[in-house]
Amino acid sequence: MCDNRRRTYCCVFVCLNNSSIPELSLFRLPIEQDRRLQWLHLIDREYLKNKSQPYHVVCEAHFHPEDIMKNSVRKLLKKIVCRV
Ligand SMILES: [Zn+2]
Question: Which residues form the THAP-type domain (predicted)?
């Protein structure tokens, strides 16, 4: 079946997780430059550092479970550090 909805994919290499998985949280790259560079270095995507598209995301699979807070609506990061 063809699915034409636009999906947001995790930008970590080889990770195919995307926004079609309802229980999966996707976290946007930090706006703050230092943290953004830290994430991009960890995921080996430093070429994204000057791109400001908001849809570059990293899925929750790349974070320690203890770094993710859950409330009734969505999951939130306690620490803005990904581990990859
Ligand atoms: Zn991922």
Answer: 6-84
